């Protein structure tokens, strides 16, 4: 068989502890789920606000199906754009405090398509070393020169900008919230430096949308940088409980992407139900501020209690709270034991992180009750002591 080589590749993944099978839920996404046949507390989904199974969003999607049907039947450039798409993009632009917005099928499509469309030979792209894989993919799709600066190191960023003088275009691109550690980019300093050197700025706000800033508007709102970041990329697949990526900015930006972003041009438009759900999520986060408030209360409680038990929670500033364990084997045993105690939280191990930086990455949501969190904390306490991580 021509694909026999895959057996060796799979064995290699297993040897590196990188091989995984798909965990399967038999319930809706929520604070407690049934996973692989076992009832567990969910502590590793991106459903920050608990919107994935929210009744208001369900009903909005149902109404859209009744009015618009299920699919769009075409790419948006040909016959796949409906009024609901255009109205939503206007709503999104208002929410993000920009003049225009454009929906892509997913965040990875937004990053890949935008970077590839805007930058090419003669350009320089400067990227934080811990940026998301979709940013890295987008950079690789261009012929631009690449420079990587040490995570969050503004001196290295300045040196890279200085060395890039004379380039046709310069892009500085960063995650807003870094998904492995939960820390926040120093976007205010990044923008200041980019402006000094005439560079374009782009932020991937996937984990900041619905979480940071006024009404969850994201990291740009958090730093009060409205109008100063050129390309604002985000998603609806995390805090908003839906799916889809977007780019927000000036009308010239989105007009150009409609014509040149391959990941937009060659993809069928979102089903109307998806767009209606995203729209309702945007409305809800502004109408019902208690979801965001509860998210942060839960985050603060979980982090404080983990620390009081003696766990190292890293440098997180967001609801992504890592429990640092060091060795990959320890993290894997820890996650397996947590599952046996009724908690689902995945290990993050080498080479996804450095050899001595393995961790359990916890993701709290607004749906978790204090009872949920206390039960999860009790499991962490038992497992931590059994594995001699804490005393």
Q: What does this 3D model show about the protein?
A:
A seven-stranded mixed β-sheet has the order 3-9-8-7-6-4-5, with helices on both faces. A three-stranded mixed β-sheet has the order 1-2-11. By secondary structure, the protein is α/β, with parallel strands linked by helices. It folds into two domains: 22-53 and 289-386, Aspartate Aminotransferase, domain 1; 55-287, Aspartate Aminotransferase, domain 2, CATH 3.40.640. It starts with a helix and ends in a 5-residue tail after the last helix. The chain contains 14 helices and 13 strands. Helix 4 (107-118) runs parallel beside helix 5.
List keywords for this structure.
single chain, 391 residues, alpha/beta, Aspartate Aminotransferase, domain 1, Aspartate Aminotransferase, domain 2, 2 domains, seven-stranded mixed sheet, three-stranded mixed sheet, 14 helices, 13 strands, 41% helix, globular
Task: Provide a brief overview of the structure.
The protein is built from 14 helices and 13 strands. With 391 residues, the chain is α/β, with parallel strands linked by helices.
Draw up the topology in text.
Blueprint: H1 5-15, E1 32-35, E2 38-42, H2 55-68, H3 83-96, E3 100-104, H4 107-118, E4 124-128, H5 133-140, E5 145-149, H6 154-163, E6 170-175, H7 187-196, E7 200-204, H8 219-222, E8 231-235, E9 245-249, H9 251-260, H10 262-265, H11 272-287, H12 290-308, E10 320-326, H13 328-340, E11 343-344, E12 347-348, E13 358-363, H14 370-386
Helix pairs in contact: 2-11, 3-11, 4-5, 6-7, 12-14
């Amino acid at each position: 068989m021509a694909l026999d080589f895959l057996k060796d590749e799979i064995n290699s993944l297993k040897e590196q502890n990188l091989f995984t099978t798909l965990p399967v839920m038999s319930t809706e996404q929520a604070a407690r789920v049934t996973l692989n046949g076992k009832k567990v507390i969910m502590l590793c989904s991106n459903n920050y606000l608990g919107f994935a199974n929210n009744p208001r969003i369900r009903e909005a999607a149902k109404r859209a199906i009744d009015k618009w049907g299920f699919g769009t039947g075409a790419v948006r450039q040909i016959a796949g754009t409906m009024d609901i798409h255009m109205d939503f993009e206007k709503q999104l632009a208002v929410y993000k405090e920009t003049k225009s917005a454009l929906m892509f099928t997913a965040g990875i499509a937004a990053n890949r398509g935008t970077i590839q469309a805007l930058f090419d030979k003669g350009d320089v792209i400067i990227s934080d070393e811990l940026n998301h894989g979709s940013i890295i993919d987008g950079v690789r799709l261009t012929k631009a020169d690449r420079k990587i600066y040490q995570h969050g190191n503004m001196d290295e960023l300045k040196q890279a900008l200085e060395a890039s003088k004379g380039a046709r275009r310069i892009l500085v691109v960063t995650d807003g919230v870094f998904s492995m550690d939960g820390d926040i980019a120093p976007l205010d300093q990044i923008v200041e430096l980019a402006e000094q050197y005439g560079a374009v700025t782009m932020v991937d706000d996937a984990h900041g949308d619905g979480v940071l800033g006024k009404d969850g508007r994201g990291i740009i709102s958090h730093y009060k940088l409205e109008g100063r970041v050129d390309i604002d990329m985000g998603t609806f697949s995390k805090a908003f409980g839906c799916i889809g990526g977007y780019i927000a900015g000036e009308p010239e930006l989105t007009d150009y992407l409609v014509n040149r972003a391959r990941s937009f041009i060659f993809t069928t438009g979102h089903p109307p139900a998806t767009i209606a759900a995203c729209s309702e999520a945007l409305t809800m986060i502004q109408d019902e501020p208690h979801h965001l408030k509860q998210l942060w209360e839960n985050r603060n409680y979980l982090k404080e209690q983990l620390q009081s038990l003696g766990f190292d929670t890293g440098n997180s500033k967001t609801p992504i709270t890592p429990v640092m364990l060091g060795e990959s084997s320890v993290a894997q045993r820890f996650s397996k034991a947590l599952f046996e105690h009724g908690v689902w939280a995945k290990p993050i191990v080498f080479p996804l992180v450095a050899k001595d930086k393995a961790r359990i990455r916890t993701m709290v949501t607004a749906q978790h009750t204090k009872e949920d969190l206390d039960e999860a904390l009790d499991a962490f306490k038992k497992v931590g002591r059994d594995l001699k991580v804490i005393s």
